[in-house]
Amino acid sequence: MTRDSYYITTPIYYVNDKPHLGHAYTSVACDVIARFMRLDGKKVKFLTGTDEHGQKVEKSAAAAGIPPQAFVDEVSQHFRHMGEVLELSNDDFIRTTEARHIRAAQALWKRLEDAGDIYLGSYAGWYSVRDEAYYAESELIDGKAPTGAPVEWVEEESYFFRLSKFQEPLLELYRTQPDFILPESRRNEVIRFVEGGLKDLSISRTTFSWGVTVPGNEKHIMYVWLDALANYLTAAGFPDIDGAHYQHFWPASLHMVGKDIVRFHAVYWPAFLMSAKLSLPERVFAHGWWTIEGEKMSKSLGNVVSPDHLVEKYGLDQTRYFLLREVPFGGDGNFSRQSMAERINADLANNIGNLAQRTLSMIAKNAEEKVPDPMLAGKRPQDVALLDLAQVTRADSLDSARDQIRRCKFHEMLGAIISMASAANEYVDREAPWKQRKENPDAMQATLYTLAEVLRCIGIMLQPFMPESASKLLDQLAVPAHARSFEHLRPEHALIPGTPLPKPQGIFPRIETDLAA
Ligand code: ME8
Q: Which residues sit with their C-beta closer than 6 Å to ligand 1?
């Protein structure tokens, strides 16, 4: 069944630290999908926010010498600010310290308890505050978590969730819904982990206090991951499961996460939901990891790249483009100033930017600043062929883009747009409208019209990735704001000859190579 609603989430970020390139990456990817779905006529809910409880945040607040609530109020703002800088189109921003969330997290707990899946026991084992995760002895490598994080021995009374009971149902889920976890490599990793055997999970702590209290036992606070995962339900209106909002948006269509937290989303989360008898999300996509100039990003190395810095130095759309074009989504990526400058210059300045620049300036000079008239030259096969690449002329024309977005193959969809621009640039060279101007002005009109129309389609397709530049391009083609959805890629919405056009302006400036140094 295809739903007309689409609910996409980013992880909620810990407020122990300021936002960096990694957070920007996940959020921009979600923003692109949200914008794509809206342009494709879906009712979208795009959620992001901050994860504000737990020992890690409590410790960071203590280190800053500020009470935890004041600390999280401040740091959460940095993530809101990141959203503004990146022009994220999120419909909601959730904070786990909000009353709506505390209510939802406790309601989820009660459902697990009512299902008979929670019992009181005591935990004795390893815990990593940095990862907010429990580790089995057998998982430790040289006395550290597999992530390299330090671990400490914890022994305390704790509630447990009967995770072991869900081993088979989870394996069944991965089998029957092979796309539940993407990409394939992560799916295999999760299956191996679950096949290895699931132990019951400690889901409460008593030795610190910054969290949601367990309903009916004030001594305990909920494990921060149970609390955090519940955010996806909170924002959908849970526990009001009969409400219109929940009915419309739950289950989530996609939880986007980094590969570091796939286990929480693809094992614990569906198990909690199965126990609570709530529908499961349709997909968890775990993307890869960015390094900076070949090194792990870390405060101690002083190489943490902030979204503010990138946007200021390279431009917002250039940053968004680079992040999603440079590496196949799912794989790991390396950020380097050199590759960023090269990518921007090759694809944006020299290809799409150049196509727009030459087309629009030729129209301004030789076609009286109006959309040219293609009819004067009659129907020409070379125009039809190029337009067919760009316009939606058949019911299935958009299917490959839809599939690329659903499977998060951003680099492929961008690659297809870039190839379209390359084809148009080759077409200009072949047609040589500067020669046609003297030899056959009607042919020049047809050539310039075709180019303008291809640019209109490119502009529409680019909107999810580069909203500002795409809108600048569409403004220059005098495409009205209400005529920019994917529906408008059809030939009946093509540019109307004779429409006056504004003065052309450059869209993608070249990055000077000294910036790359
Ligand atoms: O894990 N490369 O929050 P978090 C790519 N609060 N992505 C990166 C990255 C990098 N180098 N560094 C961070 C948490 N990320 C929990 C989530 S959800 C219910 C709770 C991104 O602040 C990536 O999406 O540590 C990763 O999963 C997330 O930031 C971790 O953010």
A: 11-14, 22-23, 25-26, 51, 228-229, 231, 257-258, 260-261, 289-290, 297
Pocket of ligand 1, candidates 51, 260, 334: which has the most ligand atoms within 8 Å of its Cβ, to mutate? 260
Q: Is the dihedral of CA 348, 350, 356, 357 positive or negative?
A: positive
Measured CA to CA, the distance from residue 284 to residue 255 in angstroms comes to 5
Q: Is pLDDT above 60 for 457?
A: yes
Q: Which are the contacts of 57, defined by CB distance < 8 A and separation ≥ 6?
A: 14, 15, 16, 51, 68, 71, 72, 210
In the CATH scheme, what is the code of domain 337-516? 1.10.730.10
DSSP 503: P
Q: How far is the CA of 152 from the centre of ligand 1 (A)?
A: 22
What is the fold, at CATH topology level, of the domain defined by 5-287? Rossmann fold (3.40.50)
Tell me how far the alpha carbon of residue 133 lies from the centroid of ligand 1, in angstroms.
14
Residue bearing the CA closest to ligand 1, atom 10 = 22
Residue 1 binned pLDDT confidence (cut-offs 50, 70, 90) = very low
Mean pLDDT of 291-295: 91
What CA–CA distance (Å, rounded) separates 37 from 30?
11
Compute the distance from residue 260 Cα to the ligand 1 centre, in Å. 7
The domain limits of the chain are: 5-287, 337-516
pLDDT in tens, 505-517: 999 988 876 544 4
Question: Given this model, what pLDDT does residue 209 score?
Answer: 92
